[in-house]
Design a protein that fits this description.
By secondary structure, the chain is of the alpha+beta class. It has helices spanning 15-18, 59-67, 80-88, 96-99, 132-135; strands spanning 24-30, 33-39, 42-44, 49-53, 69-74, 104-105, 114-115, 120-128, 137-147, 157-161, 164-167. The strands form 3 sheets. The protein has a 7-stranded antiparallel β-sheet. A two-stranded antiparallel sheet has the order 6-7. A two-stranded antiparallel ribbon has the order 10-11. Strand 10 (157-161) and strand 11 (164-167) form a beta hairpin. The two termini are 26 Å apart.
């Protein structure tokens, strides 16, 4: 095995190594208003719970705090311009669906819209905001999931910091090495 020679690294930039999942588009709605935010800071908590960092200056945070729900949408690489555009656009003054050519669709279990152009959409209810004040951490339970049948492993984008994205690459199966109960 290769050994790496390491040097000191800026602790404020460790996310480029630890970001666990794809960039997502979080849609929210409350009181006749809707919004979309780009998010790279999230993590799975068990099989159907997702922890999300939502900054207190983000317009979507207020909508989510009031409605106590959202939709986590998983875009593919072909939506990179919309992902960046939504992330660069702030506040309630812009309809991000119209501005970035995204189509809202009615959800089944929450009031926030799904994004039709995204590969998957997960309708979520806020179940724990006890760490929101201190860490801006919100925990959601997925109550309804929608995903395209193909491709099985879409080209998702993962933010590495500094304006750099990694695109999900080659997949290799190691199923035969796993115990069946661990799959």
């Amino acid at each position: 095995m290769k050994k790496y020679r390491k040097t000191d690294f800026d602790v404020n930039k460790i996310r480029r190594f630890l970001e666990p999942g794809p960039v997502i588009l979080v849609s929210s709605a409350h009181g006749g208003e809707r919004n979309i935010m780009t998010m790279g800071w999230h993590t799975m908590l068990g099989y159907d719970h997702v922890g999300c960092y939502i900054w207190d200056q983000n317009h979507s945070r207020g909508l989510i705090e009031k409605s106590r729900e959202c939709v986590i949408n998983v875009p593919t690489f072909d939506l990179i311009d919309a992902v960046i555009g939504v992330g660069n656009t702030h506040g309630p003054g812009v309809d991000k669906f119209a501005a970035f050519g995204l189509t809202p669709a009615k959800a089944e279990a929450v009031g926030a819209p799904l994004i039709e152009e995204c590969y998957a959409s997960f309708e979520c209810k806020l179940v724990d905001d006890s760490q929101a004040g201190r860490y801006s951490l919100f925990v959601f339970e997925c109550v309804k999931a929608h995903a395209a049948a193909a491709p099985k492993y879409p080209k998702t984008v993962h933010y590495r910091g500094d304006g750099v994205f990694m695109v999900a690459g080659e997949n290799k199966s190691y199923r035969r090495k796993f115990k069946p109960e661990m799959l």
